[in-house]
Amino acid sequence: MKVELQNLTKIFPSRNKKSNEEVVAVSDFTFTIPDGKLVGLLGPSGCGKSTTLYMISGLQKPTPGKIFFGDEDVTELSPENRGIGLVFQNYALYPHMTVKQNILFPLQNLKGADRMSKPEMLERAYEAAKLVQIDGLMDRKPSELSGGQQQRVAIARALVKMPRVLLLDEPLSNLDARLRLQTREEIRRIQKETGITTIFVTHDQEEAMSISDIIVVMKLGVVQQVGKPQDIYDDPINLFVAKFLGTPPINVFHGYIKGGKLYVGGTETPITETVEVEETVETENGPVTEVKTVENIVGYKYDGGTAVLPADAAIEERGVYIGIRPEGFELKKRGALECKLSNVEVMGRDCSVVSTHEAAESPTVRSIIDSDSDIDREAETVRFALKPNKVFAFDKWTEERIYF
Amino acid sequence: MVDSKHQWKAWLYLSPAIVLLLIFTVWPIINTIRMAFLEGYDSLSAVNGTTFSFGFGNFIKVVQYKQFLTCLKNTALLCVTTVPISTLLALLIAVCLNAIKPLQKLLQTIFFLPYVTNSIAIGMVFAAMFNIVGNAHGTENEIIVTAGIINNVIEFFGGTHINWINAGSTYWANMTVMIVYIVWNALPFKILVLLGGLQSINKQYYDAAKVDGTSRRRVFTRITVPLLSPMLAYVVITGFIGGFKEYTSIVGIFDETMGPPDDKGRLNTMVGFIYDALETSKQGRASAAALILFGIILVITLINLQVSKKKVHY
After folding, report:
1. Which residue of A has its CA nearest to B213?
2. What is the pTM of this model?
3. Which ipTM was obtained for this model?
4. How far apart are CA A253 and CA A352, in angstroms?
5. What is the mean pLDDT of residues A283-299?
6. Which of A363, A367, A302, A365 is nearest to A332 (CA)?
7. In order of start, what are the domains of chain A with their CATH numbers?
8. Which residues from B are below 8 Å from A110, CB to CB?
């Protein structure tokens, strides 16, 4: 089932009557989720991803915006009529019912023509349980299950009525690291087997990248970028997306572009212009017009730093943030970028070089290089050459991507 | 664990509470048991140096009293009627209160008011409401003048007044008044406990039920009630215990005569029986009756706990 979101917006009225501050949880979200895909809504907490999910589920109503399942407008439909399965963050399994009763519960709610006979219900329940491999635990209570098992029961309960769309709210956040890895593959497998369009919410970029067909990166209710995980990683649209994706995170430097070159570091001097401004001042003898001279900043000049890569000569002189992926560094004796070496962490497959640079935004610069490269651990400094496709430039003020 | 060397300190700090408990709780309990098993014990003779032999005479005497059976019947009847009625009403009111947003706090306060009002005072108001002659102690020969609000309402709708509590009233009329009064009096505490329970139920269960298209009735019977069962068990158990100790409510409406003027003692309860025995300074009999009451409450509570073990979740 294709899911289409049109200008989806959610505004919460302010709680405090005195201040008329409305909270815009989701702003103008337009996106079509293709049939049978696994989509991850990714963003830091408070970015509106869960709100979006709840709007798709029908538990919250958009203000304004429309939601389509296939060609059917479901915006005004109540949750039970949308044909969705929802897995809550803390599973919301009914604690007084056994696993079997929990899975049967949605089926027992069906009325009229949809109502099944008891053996049919049981068969469906066992089918769903088998899919998530909990058919051996059917008579246990949720409190007698591990976190991972509870998660599976919740998924089985959501799947048992064969929903058109499966929604998962932070499905892995309550699991320990090992189980998380296992469960995310499980979710991927279940989604592939059932072919149900699945939307899940997460704040963990690794989780989103590893199992999604499509990722939607959100920030403060606004969609930043939509695409395949690798595409977003390789081609982030702005600094936020670049910073949010990837472990270890991207290294951000201050720098500038000038004369067809990309510089790391350097100094920024404002160019000022003296303008005369007429200003009317109220005095005892009525308004008097005075002429004042004001210094306006009209631009910045950049100097110094290290030229690291060539840039498009057509780009005028401007300050930028330079994002370099950890794998974008190459050890080179004559590399352009010189950093103070502080530590080398060997991780077997490769090793990570921790260094510092005065122009870097974070206290350390982390780069990942092959473990067989020759590195002098005792050296004071280390020199890197940069791989051009792993280096991104972003405007200093808008933080939008600049292709150089 | 506290170091044995410093244990005396712990005992020192506990001592004020322990001393008070020993004097006012533990000793009276032991003394009650002692007095119950001393044949025909009464404190006046005890002071004069009479010794009493050990035996079950007090218990036998208690059971042989006609009044005792009346008391037991009244108490049991009040329990089995008021506890279920008040629990169901409280559940209904709590669910309704929980469902509304505006005025919730105000209504909560209003429903709680009876709890902080003196039950004798409430009893007097109820007595006035159910009255028929303006004087609770009217005799049979007095001219009946409808004065109580309840009878006024009944007559307004074309019914004939009922003699609720005055001379010549029936036992069932008296009981009805008692049940209405006790239920009304028991509601606030139960509502408070159940409302607290309702508000602590995770809202996600209801969201999950909504997504699954659960009907309102099924949400109530399959989700709300089971998740509320610990609180329900609590109010039922405390309700039964309170019910067996019923006394002041009857005093509130019928005065210490424990019944209408022409049939005194008709509505007496177990606790009333104990007080009567004390009044005639028959401490032995009173103690025996108290132990019997204790036994009954214990058995009922154990049955309650046994039932709730099967029905109460988690």
Report:
1. A80
2. 0.76
3. 0.75
4. 18
5. 80
6. A367
7. 3-244 (3.40.50.300), 267-302 (no CATH), 323-402 (2.40.50.140)
8. 213
